[in-house]
Amino acid sequence: MPVVKVDADHALPPGLTGTLADLPGHAPVILMIHGYRYSPAAAHCDPHRHILSLDPDCRVRRALSWPRALGFGTGNGDEGLAIAFGWEARGMLGRAYGRAGRMGRPVAALASAVAQRAGRPVAVIGHSLGARVALQALHHADPGSIGRVVLLAGAEFRDTAAAALDSPAGRRAEVLNITSRENDLFDFAMELWLDRGRRQALGFGLDRPAGNWLDVQIDDQATLAALDRLGFPVERRPLRLSHWTPYLRRGLFDFYRTALAQPWALSLPMLRARLPGRIEPRWSRLLAPPAQGRGVRA
């Protein structure tokens, strides 16, 4: 059972407790959270048939299997356990954003229960509004139950993220904030739609540095060169506009897998020393010359 499906407002699957108890001591537990416009209640946008599936429909756009990319489904008994969390993320953006905030409590309860039964912190990866869910879970999770968190193009505001990081669970977690100037239009639209442009999105990182937070801009050439030197060659060709390159760009999931499953191999102090840590100005990709930013991925 390398991947376990858990949906909001549903009980834990039978047998999960035993599975967690039988995990090898070094095996990771990784909680995956999808973003906007997915719903377990509708077959055509069910995340468990799409990105959270071991075998998604290859005819569907952006159908890359997160659990396989994270190293699950190999048959290796040491691969650990992936938990695919599904929630209702359809509807108008404002309502979905509010619902994502409320999903923090059930995700926190899930992470706390799993960490207690597995005897280790749960790692978390979330895209878009799934990143908001992950951050909101920090407000309610048992301290120490959530370890390394990878946020992919998080649909959240900087101040809200900082408040989550300042919670008891947040202070004991580590966050890799994966950003991209390819996501600028989506960040800008969120700022206008949800708060009339009064606050900035998380694509710029936190307002104030935090020791357990690191921004990684994955369309910055210096950052990609540094990842290559660390043993993670990543596709270099940037796009002008895309909300999905944090998980579709070839090579990135190798980095995420190591960061989540073996955080000691990519410690934050080491990454901070090796990666540039800079964030380029907004619109720098959209306005770049053609050789630097090609195409749009819808």
TrEMBL record:
Domain of life: Bacteria
Name of the molecule in the record: AB hydrolase-1 domain-containing protein
Annotated source species: Paracoccus angustae
Lineage of the species this protein comes from: Bacteria, Pseudomonadati, Pseudomonadota, Alphaproteobacteria, Rhodobacterales
